[in-house]
Design goal:
The complex is a heterodimer of chains A (583) and B (462). By secondary structure, chain A is mainly beta. Chain A is built from two helices and 43 strands. Helices cover 3% and strands 51% of the residues of chain A. The radius of gyration of chain A is 51 Å and the shape is rod-shaped. The chains are: A mainly beta (583), B mainly beta (462). At the A-B interface, α1, β1, β2, β34 and β42 of A face β4, α4, β15, α6 and β19 of B.
Chain lengths: 583, 462
Amino acid sequence: MKRSLLSILQLTFLLSLTSCVNENYDLSKIEVNEISGLEGISVPVGSSTMISVEDILGFRTESNDLKTDDDGNYYFSFGDDEALSRTINVPKFSFDGYYDDQSRDFTISSPVVIPDLWDGFVTPVIPFTDLVYELEIDQNNLPELIGSIAYANVRSRIGVDFSYDQSTLPLKKIILAKEATITFPEWVVLGVPSNMFKKLNDHTVELANDFHITPNGASIVLPVQGLDFSKLPKEQGVIAPGHLHLDADIHLTGGIIINSSDCLSIGTYKPVVSTKLYLEPINVEALRLSKISLGDEARSSHTVELGDIIPQVLYDEGLVLDFDDLALKVSHYNGLPFAGNVAAMIDTYKDEHPVRKCSFNFDLVYQLNSIGNNIVNYFTESGKNSSIKVDGLNSILNPTPDKFYVSTEITLDDLAEHMDDEDYGLIVPGASYSFSGGYEFIAPLSFGSDFRLNLTEDITGFKLNIPSLELAEAQLKLNFVNALPFDIDLKGEAIDADGNVLPHISVELSGEVKGGTVSAPSVNPLVLTFKNKGDLKIDGVRLNMNASTSSANSVLNKKQFIQFKDMRLSLPKGITYYFGDNN
Amino acid sequence: MKRLFFIAIIALSFCASASAQHNLRTGYFLDGYTYRHKLNPAFGGDRGYFAIPILGYTTLGVESNLALSTLLYPTGNGNLTTFLSPMVSADDFLSKIHDDNPLNVNADISLFSLGFNAGKSFHTIDMSVKADARANVPGALFSWTKQYGNLLDMSSLGFNMDSRVELSYGYSRPINDWIRIGAKVKLLAGAAKAEYSMEQLTLTMQEDMWRAVAQGKGYFSVPGVDFETEGRTITGINMSDISTILDKASQTNNYGFAVDLGITMEVIENLIVSASVTDLGFINWQGMTLGSENASIEHIGFEGLGESADIKDQLIGLGNDMLEIISPEVRGRNDRLNEMLSMTAHVGVEYIMPFWDRLSVGALGTYRFDGPYSWWEARGSINLALFNWFSLTGNYAHSTFGGSYGAAINFHPNGINFFVGVDSYKPALNMTKQYVPIDSFNTTLAIGLNFAFGGYHGRFDK
């Protein structure tokens, strides 16, 4: 037993010590013709700079007419801040009354018998027949801007001269009895008369005391402070530009008194008193007009040659930009105390042929004094950012015109009924008034419905064309950050160091690029896989980007961009490197 | 003479650090094995011995879980190719790679060794040169070269080399009829030490850049070798001539102390349980503290279209950046480093066959406490003491480094003691034509020729 066990142990021990030489392992025959490894290596190659929409579309905002607002939205604008600028000089003028043959004699119906010169006899008031004077103002030289006068502040006097012939009427004086009245037309606004009168209304006065008429004559005078044109019959007033016509009657009624002590002799008297109406020139101090006629002063037209100012990019074929919700900004300054209306019409022309037309109007706000304020109104077709809509405005630049014709006309009306204070709203002769208007046509740019983007960008410098290095497959992984508002189709082409396309190398793209916004750019993971049956001797990739917009109104914003971010060059099957001549 | 003595020691120290191994664990149960006291100081000697210098006891060892067959592959046409060949699939290669791939090389060479029995006691006096070189390559680094990943964690990368001269005195004796104890005290003189390890070294590929984070620490104390620095940055190495190196080595300020402790117990008849710890001690070094800041770099690719994205430049630039952050700096000169020795613990159980006391079986557990380079082993053996002058053993072990077969023989007649053994002869089972092990480097070879004297005190002395 012991001997057998000993024999087994000895045999096992000897066998276990037997070394074995493996013929397959000869260290003198190590073959290092090629090595491979780094399967799946991914080399970060950083991120591209942001490629701005300006780089993509190839334009710059250095153009004076292509601007961005505070949010970065592009807009193209043109206009004229002083498209309409006028100063109205109102000359001093007066109304000249026409009153030829305005002498009237008044008599009494029955003679007065004076029996005794000294008995203190005083006759009762002996009425005389009403005297009627015709007052007429007909003037053709009014300033033409005066359309319709509502009221005129004037400075003038009107009166009646009395006289008689003592040789035929031997009286030291004749007494015009108190309570005699002078009645003017309603549109004559009297001023404050002297104490001898009592004003019954604006246009009627009554003698407060007896008025003595002597052979040398006597006059009664009344101030005139205004002419109320609103009380004129329709056919009177400013009947034509520059032509004023007024006519009316002035009535004098009353009686006379004869005191016997004034008689130079006894007898029977039938006094005849001569009267004559007189009117001083009516100096116009201020006018409240119900209408002002600006005539040619209020008409303006402008022609803008857009070919010089619209960026060429808007004309380029294949790159169609659009205008998004056009807006017309109208500013005006109205130093006249009138409200009114502005009517404007826009015509566009291309190759001298009319293309588009739109018109609009808006009310001008009156100013309460001659220090006007700038008022800005915005007009859009949609009403967005504006309460005023202009039909057809959005299409006015489609197609892009080469000429833009703007005409405006302003009419002004008195809005006296809105005025609280008579002192306001008056035109003062001798003063100057101004109004002005400007416009700016604002066209936010957008990617139009016909927009087509064709963009090529090269990502180069991979330098995978290292001799003896074989790559079975390469991948470029990246995040395509898109702040453009539309999807982008991508295709890749492998290129060599000279930028030549390598058609034998296929480039498969997985992933898609969705549209984004400036505030929320889309981040789109993409993988470009380069494959070739042979080797990949590439230096980079050419990305051909195509995009189109299916709908308009995608605004064009300076902050829009695309960016190739977090780029990683991966070699899923690693690297094979050949030594010696095996390559 | 003294100078020649030191020349020999230093030369052996440096040579040893380039080859190496620990004690022959296969010899733990080998009858008559003179140097069992190196494994457990409680073991006594069958006879007294006197070692022939250098030839008396030499062990050389390599421990690694990497094999040549992992790195080289037959092509089928009689040639070999590397694992980097496209013929070698990544899955096949990576299945052979472990998370950590240590390579430990060590040596123990006896300069002077004497053992003798005095009564029931056994005394040893020994002067040896020991050297260890350890390195660890993270498996991730191999994986990365073959199959790229977004994270490359090389935090366990490092190396450690030291060599020392030990002067020891050992004593063992039975304290009763079934227990024997032993101890050994050691005075240590450090010859050289160099270590550098990464506390963190990661390379991460993030979305658009590489990010490398590194932090390392180390120590350097090699006589006659100094670093040129600018500030803390190492710019060059100055090596003295050999005589200066020897002078400096002979004036070493690196001293230490250690003990080995052991016990054997025949708990029941024929069943012997033993345990020991060796190298329980420290060594105090004087040298340079090395380190690198907790640094990180972000290696970004290119910015902007049209710029270069050259993959080669990228990798070169990345490599340069990484070298920059992992390069050690000199943190201090003439710094003292108190370092615990790498301790080894053994627990053994031997059962002597009752039907034939020259046959026994044994089980040995070993654990090496060595920080990131620690390892364990379980070894079962059959031991045969055919004669009082010849014994042999064969065993199988499984360890951190895989499975292995060991064997040893020992001729120990009166007057001479010759032994040779390996902890694993697996490397010899499959070798290249140049006799390089293919499947495993993992083994320890021990050989020794000693003069034996004195009467027989072995277990057959009854």
